[in-house]
């Protein structure tokens, strides 16, 4: 698996506990509209992702991240 | 034409459904007459005030009133100008001197509101390459200060020391860091572990700003706040406060020992581009602040009130925001907004005013009945308040 594939797989795994609606998640899945996460869920999820990948995802960055694929891309940049 | 109001339709619908039940609008109450810091007439009814943040009851203090009247007579009703143009009177300087004495700090800067103090200081201090690390439950004025500036904003879980430390350590080397904390968090009335958090911030090279809006005048030996009570006030770089709580008027401020602090007066837009406080307001504030230095007895009585209300409400069967009383705010947790609004209305019928707090202002989407005590609430009044909570709680089915 490439680095990106690994990051994507890990991200999917981390989304599952918060995927209360059982949505089939793809790269195009949107956090707010499709997963219907509120701000508190986003906070918990982001905190977990930050700890897993040992990165900071500022609120400024979060505002630009709408889909799962965009998050995986952002994580790739942050880890580089 | 696209109606720009369409985005508010969900809020309009929620409000209408709440009012359909015949409920008094919790966000449209009018005080017809105010008798004292603890009693007002609302809807023609004598009402005990338990949601005013008037912690030290200074709003009707005779010395404070006299100072305001004298300033009105001698300096007029307003300054009609910015602090940096024609809006600095001797009263504004006297007010800043009172703050420097109160906090034993080198510099004090008075803003027109507490909201503007956070807005101005936070947005000005942290620039484009800098990082602001803040508690997720921070007040709206702190978030708005972040939004007005250009820094990277990094929130951490409420009062979580490890979460703060982890985030500080991940900030790129060479970036400026500002940690923003509050002494008392106003929704649940809980305090921050400032001693540990400030130590972590300093160890990681961050400057620290603490908003002590809800602790000034009451917490700490001299009423300087939670940072004083926990013995680390000298390690705090900036303290933000307000005149609209314990001080009993309106306005905001920042105090600091930073040697370059005064330059903020020229570069802080929410300080420069607004009119200064009226002379009567700064006169009442300065008089009140100086009296608050010597109010140990009132502080002790306020603690008694807070402990008694907390214990009494818990005994009645209400769920509270903190296990122990940590401040002058006691938050009663309601199961949902409908029950909260019904309980709020029932309390008002009994003759008691509290704050109804609802999402998004509250943490974890809670609905809260927020009670803030006053040093001038008498023992009898606290007894009356508990009786009203018992009656309203039973009438609405909140307690057995």
What does the model show?
The complex is a heterodimer of chains A (80) and B (400). Chain A is mostly helical and 80 residues long. Chain A is built from four helices and no strands. Chain A has helices at 3-15, 39-53, 59-62, 68-79. In chain A, helix 1 (3-15) packs across helix 4 (68-79). The longest helix of chain A is centred in the middle third of the chain and has 15 residues, at 39-53. The model of chain A has no long low-confidence stretch (mean pLDDT 93). With 400 residues, chain B is α/β, with parallel strands linked by helices. Chain B folds into two domains: 11-56 and 296-395, Aspartate Aminotransferase, domain 1 (Alpha-Beta Complex), CATH 3.90.1150.10; 61-292, Type I PLP-dependent aspartate aminotransferase-like (Major domain) (Aspartate Aminotransferase, domain 2, 3-Layer(aba) Sandwich), CATH 3.40.640. Chain B is 40% helix and 18% strand. Chain B is built from 14 helices and 16 strands. In chain B, helix 5 links the parallel strand 5 (131-135) and strand 6 (152-156). Chain A binds chain B through residues 38-40, 43, 47, 50-51, 54-56, 58-61, and chain B through 131, 136, 146, 152-157, 163, 166-167, 170-171, 360, 364-365.
């Amino acid at each position: 698996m490439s680095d990106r594939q690994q990051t994507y797989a890990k991200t999917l795994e981390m989304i599952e506990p918060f995927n209360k609606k059982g949505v089939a998640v793809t790269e195009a899945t949107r956090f707010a509209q499709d997963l219907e996460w509120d701000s508190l869920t986003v906070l918990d999820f982001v905190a977990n992702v930050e700890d897993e990948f040992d990165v900071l995802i500022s609120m400024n960055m979060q505002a630009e991240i709408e889909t799962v694929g965009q998050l995986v891309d952002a994580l790739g940049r942050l880890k580089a | 034409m696209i109606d720009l109001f369409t985005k508010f339709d969900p809020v309009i619908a929620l409000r209408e459904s709440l009012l359909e039940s015949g409920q008094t609008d919790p966000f449209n109450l009018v005080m017809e007459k105010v008798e004292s810091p603890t009693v007002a007439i609302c809807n023609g009814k004598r009402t005990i005030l338990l949601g005013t943040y008037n912690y030290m009851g200074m709003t009707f203090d005779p010395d404070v009133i006299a100072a305001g009247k004298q300033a009105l007579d001698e300096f007029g009703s307003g300054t009609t100008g910015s602090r940096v143009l024609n809006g600095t009177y001797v009263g504004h300087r006297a007010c800043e001197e009172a703050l420097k004495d109160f906090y034993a700090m080198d510099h004090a800067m008075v803003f027109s509101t507490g909201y503007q103090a956070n807005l101005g200081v936070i947005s000005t201090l942290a620039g484009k390459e800098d990082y602001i690390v803040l508690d997720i439950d921070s007040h709206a004025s702190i978030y708005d200060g972040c939004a007005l500036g250009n820094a990277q904003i990094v929130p951490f879980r409420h009062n979580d020391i490890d979460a703060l430390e982890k985030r500080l350590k991940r900030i790129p080397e060479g970036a400026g860091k500002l940690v923003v904390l509050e002494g008392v968090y106003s929704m649940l009335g809980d305090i921050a572990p400032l001693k540990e958090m400030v130590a972590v911030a300093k160890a990681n090279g961050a400057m620290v700003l603490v908003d002590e809006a809800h602790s000034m005048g009451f917490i700490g030996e001299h009423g300087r706040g939670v940072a004083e009570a926990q013995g680390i006030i000298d390690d705090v770089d900036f303290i933000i406060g307000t005149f609209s709580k314990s001080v009993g008027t309106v306005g905001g401020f920042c105090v600091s020992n930073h040697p370059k602090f005064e330059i903020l007066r020229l570069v802080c837009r929410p300080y420069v581009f607004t009119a200064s406080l009226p002379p009567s307001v700064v006169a009442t504030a300065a008089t009140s602040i100086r009296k608050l230095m010597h109010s140990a007895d009132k502080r002790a009585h306020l603690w008694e009130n807070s402990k008694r209300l907390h214990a009494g409400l818990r005994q009645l069967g209400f769920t509270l925001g903190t296990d122990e009383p940590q401040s002058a705010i006691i938050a009663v947790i309601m199961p949902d907004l409908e029950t909260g609004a019904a309980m709020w209305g029932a309390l008002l019928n009994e003759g008691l005013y509290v704050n109804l707090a609802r999402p998004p202002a509250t943490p974890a989407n809670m609905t809260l009945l927020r009670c803030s005590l006053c040093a001038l609430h008498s023992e009898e009044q606290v007894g009356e308040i508990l009786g009203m909570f018992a009656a309203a709680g039973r009438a609405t089915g909140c307690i057995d």
